[in-house]
Amino acid sequence: MATTFEPKIVGFLCRWCSYAGADLAGTNRMKYPSNVSSIRVNCSGRIDPVLVMKALALGADGVLIAGCHPGDCHYTNGNIKTLRRFKLLQKMLDQFGIERERVRLEWISAAEGERYAQVVRSMTEQVRSLGPLNWKRELEATA
Amino acid sequence: MSTMPQKRVGVFICHCGLNIAGTVNINEVVERAKKQAGVVLAVDHKYLCSEPGQALIKDTIKQQHLDAVVVAACSPAMHESTFKNVVQSTGLNRYNCEIANIREQGSWVHDDRERATAKSHVAVRQAIEKVKLNEALQPITVPVTRRVLVVGGGIAGIRAALDVANAGYEVYLVEKSGTIGGRMAQLSETFPTLDCSTCILGPLMVEVYRHPNIKLLRLSKVEEVKGYIGNFKVTVRQEPPYVDVAKCNACGECAKVCPAEVPNEFDMGLTWRKAIYTPFAQAVPPAYVLDSKNCLGLLPQACGECKRACDKYGTSCINLDAWPQVHELEVGAIIAATGYELYDAAKLTEYGYGTHPDVMTSLEFERMLSASGPTSGEIRCPSDGRIPREIVFIQCAGQREPETALPYCSKICCMYTARHAMMFHHKVPDGQAYVFYMDIRAGGKGYEEFVKRCQEEKGLLYLRGRVAKVYEENGKLIVKGVDTLSGKTVEINADLVILAVGMVPSAESHDLASKLKASLDAYGFFAEAHPKLRPLESPTAGIYIAGAGHAPKDIPDTVAQASGAASKALDLLSSPTLEREPTVAKVTGELCSGCGICIPICPYTALTLSSTTKVAEVSAALCEGCGTCVASCPSGALTLRNLTDEQILAMVEAIVAS
Amino acid sequence: MIKQKLAFNWASSCGGCEIAIFELGTKLVELTNKVEIIFWPAIMDYKYQDLEEMPDRSIDVAFMNGAIQNSENEHMAKLLRAKSKILVAFGSCAYTGGIPALANTTTRDEIFTNSYKDTPTTVNPEKTLPQTKFQAKEGELSIPEFYNTVKSLDQVVDVDYYVPGCPPVGEQVTKVITQFVDGLSPLPPKGSILGASDRSLCYECKRVRDERKIGRIVRTYQTIPDPQKCLLEQGIICMGPATRGGCGSVCLDANMPCRGCYGPLPKAIDQGGKMLSALSSIFDAQTEEDVQKIADSVVDPIGTFYRFSMSRSLMRRTKK
Question: So what's the architecture of A9-141 in CATH?
Fold first, then answer.
């Protein structure tokens, strides 16, 4: 029996907004797939595009970056810097042939538990339908 | 690659009753944890946050000589500090404790036992890898200079200074003009009580002047600010008044003979004053001041008439050979209370300000209403001095207009316009006042009732609509507007037109903000650290904000905010030292090339480029640990303590390797 | 005095690194008194046999430049490694893939189709493509296999040292080769980058830096840059912040931006990614729309940020 592909998605969540939002989803006992494992950072601004690429190169099928809504960043505007980096990274990932659905930037506030659950559900299904990225194997195969 | 010796890690997994154990296979998590490199033991417990649970962790650390602990339980938001405290109580550094969230982001959100358990393995493994690489950090302790600097001597600065001084600390109050009092001193009455403004302000001004803990530095400007929270070094340049305050009895003989005349700022240019003058009758200190910029000349002395008059008829208190003083102040906290000025009404060409003398701004009208003003409180047309019969008030002048002027609302104009209209009615009982408005914003205590009274008053007509144009025709001033409630256009032959123009930050705030390294918002007002939860402080640590310099507001809100800002400053001063979180950014000097890209990234100006070493430096006291600079560093010279790239990637590997 | 035995070889290369050796100038003559150059195909006629017949580890120091793009490159790299005590990856191509590694943005098939079929001036009526083996009437002919992915030298053999640059600047070439000739003692740790600084180009750059922010991005042909001011601030993408210095900022002095040929900094995981982050962090834009506008003006991110370092990058190649 063919097993369904279970995508491995790395989630970088900012401590003050999106991580709290994810916790709220839990407090409200919402249910969503277990494919996104979160790494708590103080601010989404901590996320270097290099970390995103390394995650993909190491075997992640997708990467989620979640931060505060613009204007609400606990550190004033770290999320704006994330936005700037993300847009340029997205352009470069297009060139690498990595589908846009695999790397996502979402604004999720501490009150948006439902939204976090929704994002996890939709991203899991989208990446599932794209199939595994398997970047390492891709490199070996196209040598 | 870190060269730390391998830590002995203990893993503690919580059942949280059935909250976790009901879904996650605890035994499996325990067994898997034991197999991870560096883990010497893994145990589970029903409620780790309970007394016996905490005791278990404590005892195990001691008995098994653990170096680090991972607690797999509820979200770190719940009990991270609890468990860190437990670890610290055994003598271990509190950063040798990491939390794996297997409840809020584990058992509570995944129904499937296998998946919930698998995800818990990952969370535990992540925490193990992170704690192995954590540095044993100590909190950063900085000393606190227990003195406060307040910049701005208006009602906000006065209230803040008094609160700090009354609490027993020294305050420097820096004011640019020759007296404190600010805008409130210019007001005739205050809404909604119609209190005489000077009557309520005056005693506070005197209290400031007499307070043993307040050092008033008038005619002063902040030149430079160095240092950081708890340790500011501020250079203030003080112009001399040329008049000995102790001797001056305000007889005015000097002003009588002074040949230089300039528009009087206090009266918004409606009257003239001499170069040697008293700002206003109740000025504090109650002495004359020489305005050296408008004096005919001091170097060399061009005139000297004032000194001669004072020596002959007065108290011989004028000394024209005075020099500016430079004060070097050491303070722990700075409160910025620089207030506001009015938007330049001349930009609103449709209203004719500047073209026709009978179009005035609200502050100008305020001076006219004042008993100490240009007309001793009588309302008269500036053009020919006649008493106006028809007066038009235009609210929202150049405000709530994102395309052409200010997009925001200045909050106080509905109220003071109502007051102005009411005062007009008292002084010109047979006159007719028209108020053109878009909305009425009267949210404060007694405000709505006051406006309602005004709206119902005979002789006051409130018209809901905008004014398209104010122009002159056959020597008359025509106001062309609309009344949306009747749907008709309105044309009024006005004798006097008053524009309620918007409040903008005072001209000095931009300069002060850059010296304080405090951020300003899009309109130039001092930005708050968080719009909802931290409205009294700047994002820059140690800088507090109060009054209209932060945002347009009325006197009650200003006074409340000033007391609040003072309280924040007092909180800072309450201890001789200050502890800051040590999970801050760090620069490896040998790898930094001084490219300077990180410098503007930091919202707290915690990064500077050293002029000697040419590389970046982090002020650990100012750094808030967001790590945005670390991500922008092209050479990897910057790192974030206890959240390094190495640690993040170790956690990523834990996720993808599963 | 026992003369040191040196070897120079080239793989997928433009020849610039060979010419760089000549930057030694008259020192080259002095050199021949101390060394014996026993293998240098670029300047003299050597055969594969010459190298194959040498005993293992008989070459003291071998300098190999060029990227590994075909099986012959790889074969020679392996041979040189076996015959040498010390193998130095010389120049950007050997170190990080160089310009040839930009082939990793496409595939062998696409390159062949473009070169042998689609180029307007190519005369190839039978649409013949290179084949590794061909049966001629005289016997079987073979040519090396063209790889789909270009590799750096250390991705096929063990490398002792690296000298970055496209090509490495004269001064550094002189310094490095002289050091080896004179006998470096003690030898630097294996894997060291020689002839370059551990700090980025910004440390040496003489241009004046003002406000670190970028309002718009322009290509070099779209503007005449102010020679005194930082190029980044003028909207020109200069790889300086993410590139090792030591080259004397010669490109900057010629009013052109650094292109990154000296490779990544010691602690940077990925040169291109680091530059992308640094550059975009200082975009002068606060809204999604404004950010998109500036991002869209970076015409070719891979070509800009990985111009010389594609082989050493995290992603290595595009997905095809």
Answer: 3-Layer(aba) Sandwich (3.40)
